[in-house]
Amino acid sequence: NLVLNEKKLQEVDSLWKEFETPEKANKMNVIVMPDFGPLISILQDKLNLSCIHSPMVTELMRGIRSQIEGLITGLPSREMAAMCLGLAHSLSRYKLKFSPDKVDTMIIQAISLLDDLDKELNNYIMRCREWYGWHFPELGKIITDNLTYCKCVRKVGDRSNFAASDVSDILPEEIEEDVKAAAEISMGTEVSEEDINNIIHLCDQVIEISEYRTQLYDYLKNRMMAIAPNLTVMVGELVGARLIAHAGSLLNLAKHPASTVQLLGAEKALFRALKTKRDTPKFGLIYHASLVGQTNTKNKGKISRMLAAKTALTIRYDALGENTNAEMGAENRLKVETRLRLLEERGIRRISGTGKALARTDKYQNKSEVKIFDPSGDSTLPAVSKKRKIQEVEEQDTEVSVKAKKFKAEMKDRSGCELLPGFVSYPCLQQVLAVRTFPFCPSLCCCVLEYQSVVMLVLYLFILS
């Protein structure tokens, strides 16, 4: 930019005032030239002009663009608008490296529509089975496939038509015979022709939605192979599309680290685990990948972590790379499959014991303990142990034995006869024996045999009598 009046450029904050109107802009003595590099130095020597390139020049160019119609004569406004629009599009494509072939927005809309179609299709099929089940309930148990069920109902209609209808193009021969036999002895209710027509119309809707879903899945598969071929090879088109939709775009997904890609879709469980100080989840949307699904439960965490690391590399290669082949994705998938096979063989070796002893490394487990307040510590009473010591128990036993010996000696002195071995004093029998049986020997009433010695007591009383 060659400027004759350099004093104006020094006033950067007020430079825009010089271009408020076309009249003020025409008063500015400005010569605008493209930056030709070495040519600028030649022009400076020949014309004795100084070249200035600074933020002040940027403000000057902005003012010139705002009044370009007044400065250039004979320029129609329509052509000026088309030129500005084309320039804006060119700059946007250049800055964002925009390619019309790589549109991840179409993938986001396609996977969202695919999920919505699955939900609606399940609702329609459930309604169709329940509705036609009132008329022919046995058909739902014989035909398990939903699309085949709807095609069969649409072709036959009333169950009485199954005997004369040919559904060999829909059902195998064995199932066709079972359906015809069940239609003759069906316990379903009779329905009108209008009800059958509505059911058939619902079956048409189910079949049309199923066909459209198949077309949409093929479209999504082709789009994923065009936009993110390496990601599609690694985790599949459905999981890859859900990852892109969850992140917002392929470029946003490429900015995420591998740990975020691994937990993408499980944010709610992650923050709940962090809040409650429990174990965090190991996988999110990547759990539905085929490599994670074919792994046993013990190795799912390891494989998902390795798969997320390789997937993050493939995402960045697809988003920022220039090549459109899927060689990198195939190589990384082969590495993950090799690692998976190695983990499975290691488990088999440990079970069989035929392989070499491998180094055992203890798995780190984060033991998060939640401490709860113990209200028993608030008590001010002294804690007394409920258990007695051995010395106290022995002292108590000796006291009991001394008391028993004293009691036996007193009874011997009173009655003049010894207590029989195996007898114990029993108060309830004492009164009976003393009053009715032996009034002349009351000391005998205190001597009652245990439960096993009733016969000995009877013989002893007979001898005394």
Automatic annotation (TrEMBL):
<comment type="subunit">
    <text>Core component of box C/D small nucleolar ribonucleoprotein (snoRNP) particles; the core proteins SNU13, NOP56, NOP58 and FBL or FBLL1 assemble stepwise onto the snoRNA. Interacts with NOLC1/Nopp140. Interacts with NOPCHAP1, NUFIP1, RUVBL1 and RUVBL2; NOPCHAP1 bridges the association of NOP58 with RUVBL1:RUVBL2 and NUFIP1. Interacts with PIH1D1. Part of the small subunit (SSU) processome, composed of more than 70 proteins and the RNA chaperone small nucleolar RNA (snoRNA) U3.</text>
</comment>
<comment type="function">
    <text>Required for the biogenesis of box C/D snoRNAs such as U3, U8 and U14 snoRNAs. Part of the small subunit (SSU) processome, first precursor of the small eukaryotic ribosomal subunit. During the assembly of the SSU processome in the nucleolus, many ribosome biogenesis factors, an RNA chaperone and ribosomal proteins associate with the nascent pre-rRNA and work in concert to generate RNA folding, modifications, rearrangements and cleavage as well as targeted degradation of pre-ribosomal RNA by the RNA exosome.</text>
</comment>
<dbReference type="InterPro" id="IPR036070">
    <property type="entry name" value="Nop_dom_sf"/>
</dbReference>
<dbReference type="InterPro" id="IPR045056">
    <property type="entry name" value="Nop56/Nop58"/>
</dbReference>
<dbReference type="Pfam" id="PF01798">
    <property type="entry name" value="Nop"/>
</dbReference>
<keyword id="KW-0539">Nucleus</keyword>
<dbReference type="InterPro" id="IPR002687">
    <property type="entry name" value="Nop_dom"/>
</dbReference>
<dbReference type="InterPro" id="IPR042239">
    <property type="entry name" value="Nop_C"/>
</dbReference>
<feature type="domain" description="Nop">
    <location>
        <begin position="227"/>
        <end position="345"/>
    </location>
</feature>
<dbReference type="InterPro" id="IPR012976">
    <property type="entry name" value="NOSIC"/>
</dbReference>
<dbReference type="GO" id="GO:0042254">
    <property type="term" value="P:ribosome biogenesis"/>
</dbReference>
<dbReference type="GO" id="GO:0032040">
    <property type="term" value="C:small-subunit processome"/>
</dbReference>
<comment type="similarity">
    <text>Belongs to the NOP5/NOP56 family.</text>
</comment>
<dbReference type="GO" id="GO:0030515">
    <property type="term" value="F:snoRNA binding"/>
</dbReference>
<keyword id="KW-0690">Ribosome biogenesis</keyword>
<dbReference type="GO" id="GO:0031428">
    <property type="term" value="C:box C/D methylation guide snoRNP complex"/>
</dbReference>
<protein>
    <recommendedName>
        <fullName>Nucleolar protein 58</fullName>
    </recommendedName>
</protein>
